[in-house]
């Protein structure tokens, strides 16, 4: 049986997508904004290393939260593809692939965090490095931050495509589709600044409030739609 002809339980797909999206938001915000961001002291590798050593358990827990987030992201990628493909099969496929690419990049990027955690824990490698261990630990955390934004570049295009498909689908408020498109633009600009003009990244950080609000609204709407009854209406033309 071809995938395109396989029926799905639309109501359950909406509920599952909404719940998994909520997991992504909670796990992602906690691990990145609450745990890791406060560890980095710009221009002071020794202070950054000391902060990481003092929060080693939280640093490891943030890696576990990221793994949960990425597994949920894979599930959301597949579910949104199934829900959105009637409204643009190629766009839905592209959106799914881009979201999976983001998950792959962020998953590989966890190796930078693992390196930081190993250095923070001490051991033979840290002993051999001596005074250089603090600098390498801080560099590992910084490399992870840059890698995270690299993954968000793929997610930014995914958000734009998802917003376009959502507006085509006619599932709910068209402003939600516009909000996702705008969120994609924020991710793309933020990733570009991190990679090309990192000194400007801090000033752009407040703009990420828009994606947080838009994606939280989208997750809540998916869940509400599934609970209410998830049969998709005729696409808008």
Characterization of this structure:
The chain has helices at residues 10-36, 45-54, 56-84, 89-120, 124-129, 132-169, 174-196, 201-204, 209-228. With 237 residues, it is mostly helical. Helix 1 packs antiparallel against helix 9 (209-228), helix 4 packs antiparallel against helix 6 (132-169) and helix 6 (132-169) runs antiparallel to helix 7 (174-196). The radius of gyration is 20 Å and the shape is elongated.
Average pLDDT metric: 90
Beta strand %: under 5%
Q: Count the strands?
A: 0
Structural class estimated from helices and strands: mainly alpha
Give a short account of the largest sheet.
Answer: none
Rg over CA atoms? 20 Å
Portion of residues in helices? Answer: over 70%
First-residue to last-residue Cα separation: 30 Å
Question: Which consecutive residue ranges, at least 5 long each, have pLDDT under 50?
Answer: 1-6, 231-237
Q: What is the overall number of helices? A: 9
Q: Globular, elongated, flat, extended or rod-shaped: what is the shape? A: elongated
How many structural units, i.e. domains?
A: 1
């Amino acid at each position: 049986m071809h995938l395109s002809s396989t029926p799905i339980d639309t109501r359950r797909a909406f509920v599952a997508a909404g719940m998994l999206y909520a997991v992504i938001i909670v796990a992602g915000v906690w691990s990145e904004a609450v745990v890791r961001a406060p560890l980095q002291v710009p221009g002071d590798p020794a202070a950054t290393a000391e902060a990481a050593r003092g929060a080693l358990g939280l640093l490891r827990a943030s890696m576990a939260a990221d793994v949960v987030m990425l597994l949920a992201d894979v599930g959301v990628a597949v579910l949104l593809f199934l829900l959105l493909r009637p409204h643009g099969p190629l766009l839905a496929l592209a959106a799914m692939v881009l979201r999976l690419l983001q998950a792959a990049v962020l998953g590989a990027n966890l190796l930078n965090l693992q390196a930081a955690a190993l250095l923070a824990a001490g051991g033979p490698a840290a002993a051999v490095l001596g005074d250089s261990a603090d600098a390498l630990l801080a560099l590992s955390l910084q490399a992870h931050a840059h890698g995270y934004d690299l993954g968000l570049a793929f997610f930014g295009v995914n958000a734009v495509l998802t917003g376009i498909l959502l507006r085509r689908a006619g599932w709910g408020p068209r402003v939600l589709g516009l909000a996702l498109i705008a969120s994609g633009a924020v991710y793309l600009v933020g990733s570009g600044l991190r990679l090309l003009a990192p000194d400007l990244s801090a000033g752009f950080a407040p703009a990420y409030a828009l994606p947080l609000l838009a994606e939280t609204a989208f997750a809540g709407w998916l869940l509400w739609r599934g609970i209410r009854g998830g049969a998709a209406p005729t696409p808008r033309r």
